[in-house]
Fold:
Amino acid sequence: MAWPKKGTRPITVNNIAYRWTVSPDSGYITLIVVREPQTGQRLAAIFPYQLMIIPLIIPSLVRSVIFLALEQGWQPTERGLKEFCIFDVDKQVIPSFEIIGKKIYATNYSS
Structure:
């Protein structure tokens, strides 16, 4: 079943198409990512609200989360796997971003 395009955003990482969306939850922001077309394992990355100085998930942050998930074993092409969750994203990804004023900039990103 295809993932709806409405309410999701496209992103390409290493020439592979993904779609992502953000889902607010009680005390957390959940970033959900799937590979296009969605046939494999979903990725859910959890960010605590209090850590998000800017409650905004930007494409460079999504890209970093995708790289992190792939390194940790996310299998976006494998069917039948339960959702791949990363709960400590803030400790693993946020340090590679610099917050200046009200904008977040990637500091160690290379494409």
Remarks:
- The radius of gyration is 14 Å.
- Strands lie at 9-13, 16-25, 28-35, 43-48, 84-86, 97-100, 103-106.
- Residues 59-71 form the longest helix (13 residues).
- Residues 100-111 have pLDDT under 50 and may be disordered.
